[in-house]
Write a structure and sequence with these properties.
481 residues; alpha/beta; Rossmann fold; 2 domains; 4-stranded antiparallel beta sheet; 48% helix
Length: 481
């Protein structure tokens, strides 16, 4: 039995509706959480909302709303994803406005201060409100932050607290030298190159006068914490740190395996800044950070102005939860950028779900219902399930495309066997031999149902229920014209 798994997404910023990019991250994380649960490992699965910062404060003011009421409204929308995306019932949800999180962020500050890694100085620089981060002149593209080309960086000059990131260059290089701390490998090389270029100490506070929406700096009411310093601490505050009354921090962080998921633009925040903060506080660093690519539409970055934003919840309403989960796991590359259009989605849905898995389950269980005297399995516990070594290897490398490819190869294999062996004819000529063939098909279908459980939990349950009842299931994936 392996170590308990602690698994977390990044926290989406509550200034917009949930989008397809975050749906990708949370579904990837949920698949991994469900997979380890299926294998019998203890899992603590975390997500939540990032609710402080200048961008939030301004957005609430634009809409004429109280800031807390504004973040409560958006936090509820992200919390609702648990049901709408079929996420694990055990999913934990942390908010950076939670009282316990605020206390944990202040304790992180105190520990880094006690280590001598927090100091105060005057600073002048360009600040990207979109990223809630300072940007260097050399990073600008046409005078704009590359991540937010429609927003003007603002010049800020004030006295702030800084974190002594420069003191951790060698320790970070040693950490990043370990195989597996970043997946995929080329992102690890990217992080190493970033650190080798030299690390600058970074601002971790703003004056309360200019940015009133944030966690107060301990013992200095004139300053609030910079949103990144505050938000990153959620990964351990959700576990009950620092008190650890329930023992979750010791079990899942200190003694477990820790895995964080993030977008490819998060490398310096998750694998450099956050790891240095953990080192400064005397805490264990993250075992692995898995970085996914971006989702584009028709080859372009999604934006409201282009009108190419894809709403994951609209897809769920029309096609069902598992159809979206299937597409994100099989047709969106786990590490590279991927293009997502509704044409591609509909094509994959009809070919691989309606005409593929859905049709196969109906054919096999129709044969079973018509020709078998009793169910092959009367209880799910009777079915001994095991993933193939190839699937296990792909899952441990977080290559969800490869896992789904292996499962769909099995779907195609059963289809081909039915066409070739024609059990529907054999059973009429030789009932015993035909029944044996059908029983074997049902066993293979049951294996597929269990194999897809982490990816498509609703469909998995429906197929297994049909197997146990020895009945043809209702149409799992109605074809879309």
């Amino acid at each position: 039995m392996g170590k308990p798994l602690y698994l977390t997404t990044t926290l989406p910023y509550v200034n917009a509706e949930p989008h397809i990019g975050f749906a990708l991250e949370i579904v990837q994380a949920d698949v991994i959480a469900r997979y380890d649960t299926l294998l019998g490992y203890g899992v603590f699965f975390n997500t939540g909302t990032d609710e402080h910062g200048l961008k939030i404060f301004r957005k609430a003011a634009e809409e004429g709303k109280d800031t807390q009421a504004y973040v409560d409204e958006y936090a509820a929308k992200f919390r609702a994803l648990k049901e709408k995306l079929g996420l694990s019932p055990e999913l934990h949800f942390v908010r950076t406005t939670d009282p316990h999180h605020k206390a944990a962020a202040q304790e992180m500050w105190r520990r880094c201060l006690a280590k001598g890694d927090i100091f105060k100085k005057k600073y002048r620089g360009l600040y990207c409100v979109g990223d809630e981060a300072f940007v260097k002149e050399t990073e600008l593209v046409d005078g704009k932050c590359p991540n937010h080309p429609t927003m003007e960086p603002i010049e800020i000059e004030e006295e702030n607290y800084f974190f002594r990131l420069s003191a951790y260059q060698e320790k970070l290089l040693e950490y990043l030298s370990r195989e597996g701390v970043i997946v995929p490998q080329w992102r690890r090389e990217e992080a190493i190159n970033f650190v080798k270029q030299g690390l600058e100490d970074f601002s971790i506070s703003r004056t309360k006068e200019k940015m009133p929406w944030g966690i107060a700096v301990p013992d200095d009411e004139t300053q609030v914490m910079y949103v990144w310093f505050d938000a990153l601490t959620n990964y351990i505050s959700t576990l009950g740190w620092p008190e650890d009354t329930d023992g979750n921090f010791a079990k899942f962080w200190t003694n477990g395996t820790t895995l964080q998921l993030a977008g490819k633009d998060q490398v310096r925040f998750q694998s450099v800044m956050w790891q240095a903060m953990l080192m400064s506080a005397g805490l264990k660093v993250t075992d692995t950070v898995f970085y996914h690519g971006f989702i584009t539409s028709d080859g372009k970055k999604m934006s409201k102005s282009l009108g190419n934003v894809i709403d994951p919840l609209a897809i769920v309403d029309e096609y069902g939860i598992d159809a979206l989960r299937y597409f994100l796991a099989r047709h969106v590359h786990p590490f590279e950028d991927s293009d997502f259009t509704m044409e591609k989605f509909k094509e994959a849905y009809n070919a691989n779900l309606a005409n593929g898995l859905g049709n196969l389950a109906a054919r096999v269980m129709q044969l079973a219902e018509s020709n078998l005297d009793k169910p092959v399995f009367t209880d799910e516990a009777m079915f001994v399930f095991k993933y193939s070594p190839a699937i296990e290897e792909s899952m441990r490398g977080y290559d969800l495309n490869a896992v789904m490819g292996s499962i769909w190869a099995a779907v195609s294999g059963i289809d081909e066997a039915i066409q070739k062996d024609q059990p529907f004819k054999v059973v009429k000529e030789d009932k015993m031999r035909g029944a044996e063939m059908i029983i074997n098909l049902v066993k293979q279908l049951a294996w597929i149902a269990k194999a897809i459980e982490p990816f498509m939990p609703e469909t998995s349950a429906k197929i297994l229920q049909a197997v146990i009842a020895n009945k043809k299931p209702v149409n799992l994936f109605p074809r879309k014209e």
